[in-house]
Design goal:
Elements lengths: L6 H12 L18 H12 L9 H15 L6 H11 L1 H21 L5 E8 L3 E11 H5 L1 H67 L4 H35 L28 H8 L1 H22 L6 E12 L6 E10 L8 H66 L5 H37 L24
Antiparallel strand pairs: 1-2, 2-3, 3-4
């Protein structure tokens, strides 16, 4: 029968493994499956005023679906409601949030001691029977445990920030898709109004052509104006469907949920723009991706320290146990204590290559961080400049161009009623007024897209270059006929 280790021996070995390694009370929180969500939540609340929803059970999934359908079945889905639906229902976001759980589990694993290896042996030979018991523990893993936990902690915090960045990117992309869809709807409405005038002008030209008052060139010019406008409406509808499909995809909607209703027009321009005197500093303080780079640099620095600490000693194990040899001639058996130390001798590998690699990885991370800081400054300046410029342009169309076109249309209408101006002049000025409204719609779209880009340039999730409205839509030029 194999004799077990004595209580004294076991206590000696285990106390040696656990010496100075009491668990940190904060590590207990790692057992919570949703631990770490607070970090992502703080960023999202500051940037968009909403918290992430991390679904981890069937009940939570059902509740999220119910809330999403309630939003999509509303009378009108506002921009804020669309963002909320995306946070609740986008599966890609749930996959990104899972990175927090994966990273916290990895950190939790690093806080745990390595299990000791227990070995029991039994051998016989002509002279004696040998029984051996031992417990083997990796001492180097025990010594470097704190450094490994610190590295895992930095990586865990970086995972929190990456999840926050994913949430912000989703929210801002959803806002922009909503803006583009509503702008396309508003554009179609104005184009249809212009089409009515162009249709009337085309019919009138056709009738006058029959009387000989219009030659074929004048008739063709009016017909071409109507045909081109019909093509513009078709193009605008294509754009509206594409933008709506993007919005649907971001909200994770499918089936009957895709029949949601949107406003018919974009929000009005605000009375004034935001004043950002220190937009660069604000972006450097709040940008999530910059904080990710800082944490990655911190993790590399801590990894460099670990590499330096284990440069010469890459493995160290202690084996403690007892050995019992019982002679066959009947002499009493004796237990013999044994302690063995195993480690690698750095004859061929002194750790220089590993240390150099760690140094270059640190230099690489440091330069990436510096580059990102420069880029963020530029992105913040550019986003703020575009935000101000697009606002001024949209206000110009709203306060100058559109009112003047309305005055012209009203005056021509009075002249037409007094039989001073012709029908073609009235129709031409009606199309010109509608064209001014189309320019205003495009300018409003560019402003609201620029507003989203400004917030994303400050907080994170910045895509850049997404504020263009495709150059807007202008009506086809009609001939106007003779006065």
């Amino acid at each position: 029968m194999i004799a077990p280790l004595s209580k004294t021996a076991a206590a000696f070995i285990i106390s040696g493994l656990l010496a100075g390694c009491a668990s940190n009370p904060n590590w207990k929180r790692l057992e919570d499956p949703k631990y770490g969500l607070q970090g992502a939540s703080a960023h999202s609340v500051a940037a968009i005023g909403k918290r992430p929803v991390w679904i981890q059970s069937q009940e939570e999934a059902q509740e999220a679906v119910a809330q999403t359908r309630a939003i999509l079945n509303s009378k009108v889905v506002s921009k804020d409601m669309a963002v909320r639906a995306a946070i609740l229902n986008n599966k890609g976001l749930q996959a990104d949030l899972a990175e927090i759980g994966i990273s916290s589990a990895e950190m939790w694993q690093e806080t745990k001691l390595l299990n000791p290896v227990v070995s029991v042996g039994y051998a016989t030979n002509p002279a004696a029977r040998l029984i051996e018991s031992a417990i083997v523990g990796n001492v180097l893993a025990l010594i470097t445990r704190e450094k490994r936990v610190n590295i895992a902690e930095a990586q865990f915090r970086a995972a929190q920030h990456r999840a926050a960045e994913s949430l912000l990117r989703l929210a801002f992309e959803t806002e922009k898709a909503w803006i583009k869809t509503v702008a396309a709807k508003e554009t179609i409405a104005y184009l249809q109004k212009a089409q009515i005038a162009a249709d009337a002008s085309s019919d009138l030209a056709k009738e006058l052509g029959r009387t000989g008052a219009f030659n074929k060139a004048v008739q063709a010019r009016e017909h071409a104006s109507f045909a081109e406008l019909t093509g513009q409406i078709s193009e605008a509808r294509i754009n509206e469907r594409a933008a709506r499909e993007e919005l649907t995809r971001l909200m994770g909607a499918w089936g009957s949920d895709i029949d949601f209703k949107l406003p018919s027009a974009l929000p009005r321009l605000p009375g004034k723009t935001l004043v950002k005197t220190e937009v660069e500093r604000e972006a450097l303080q709040k940008r999530v991706d910059l904080q990710i780079s800082k944490l990655e640099l911190e993790a590399v620095a801590r990894s460099h320290k670990l590499t330096n600490a284990t440069r010469y000693l890459t493995d160290l194990e202690v084996k403690a146990g007892f050995e019992r040899e019982k002679p066959k001639d009947g002499d009493p058996a004796e237990w013999e204590k044994r302690v063995e130390v195993e480690f690698a001798i750095p004859i061929f590998d002194s750790g220089d290559a590993r240390l150099r690699k760690a140094e270059f990885m640190y230099m690489q991370a440091a330069n990436r961080l510096a580059e990102k800081a420069v880029n963020i400054r530029s992105e913040a300046r550019g986003a703020y400049d575009k935000y101000k410029s697009t606002y001024e342009l949209a206000r110009h169309y709203r306060d100058k161009v559109v009112p003047l076109r309305d005055i012209i249309k009203q005056e021509v209408l009075l002249e037409y009623n007094g039989m001073i101006s012709s029908t073609f002049e009235l129709l031409a000025d009606t199309k010109a007024a509608t064209n001014a409204m189309l320019m205003l719609v495009n300018a409003k779209q560019n402003f609201w897209l620029a507003e989203v880009d400004l917030r994303s340039a400050i907080h994170g999730g910045y895509g850049g270059g997404g504020s263009g409205g495709g150059g807007g839509v202008s009506l086809a030029e009609g001939g106007g006929g003779p006065h």
